[in-house]
Amino acid sequence: MMFRIIPKEEKFFDLFEKQAKAIKACLPILLEIASNRHIEPLWEKQIQELEQNCDSITKEIIVKAGQTFVTPIDREDIYALAQAIDDVMDFVEEVVIKIVDYKVLPDEALKKFLEIIRLSIIQVYDGIFKLRKLENVDELQIKMKKCEHNADKLVKDIIADSYEISVSDILTQGASEYLSKKELQAVFDSYNHTRQRREIAEKMEEATDACEKVFHNLGNIYLKHA
After folding, report:
1. Using alpha carbons only, what angle is made at residue 45 by residues 64 and 101, rounded to the nearest 5 degrees?
2. What is the pLDDT of residues 97-149, one digit of tens each?
3. Which residues, 6 or more positions from 6, have their beta carbon under 8 angstroms from its beta carbon?
4. ∠100-202-42 over CA atoms, to 5°?
5. What does pTM read for this prediction?
6. pLDDT digits 0-9 by tens, 96-107
7. Which terminus of the chain is less hemmed in, N or C, by CB atoms within 10 Å?
8. Residue ranges of the domains in the chain?
């Protein structure tokens, strides 16, 4: 009877699923940001705590991969997948921190972006939970690709908008050709808000791209083992 002297360590799947749960835990924060009418500083503290938790799980996976002689999937794939999942959390953290620090309440376009990120994270979560049994993720990957496409289009629109600032729309009616300090400040405030909005959108796109990268790593694993 054949048997393995050194069994494969199956706990990696537990850790990947734990990591998936860690990033999914940020969804209530994203929903609250999209629905609130004011900026809540607590969001920053909450997202930082979630990121630290995800980071600790990532480190546990990496350490365990280095200590385990026989792994259930290739060691390099373990490293790559763990880092890809962690990157999702890192970019989401940056999005939330920028929203809080800049005090930019999401408009309709940024709310759409938050929804894209939410859907992307759900696809990642579901994909990770199919890894243990190497279940097919083609349907999830199609949904993820749609999220990525929508994110690319939306960020392009937001960037284009950021270069179309009309001073006449900012100033009060009847303003003279010489701007007062108050009027000049209004111009600068509008420019800063537009720039900050663009920065947030760019980080949102990076968060979506990070989710797509998770599926790239999952695809590599399936090709080798399925």
Report:
1. 120
2. 999 999 999 999 999 999 999 999 999 999 999 999 989 899 999 999 999 99
3. 69, 70
4. 15
5. 0.87
6. 999 999 999 999
7. N
8. 11-163+182-225
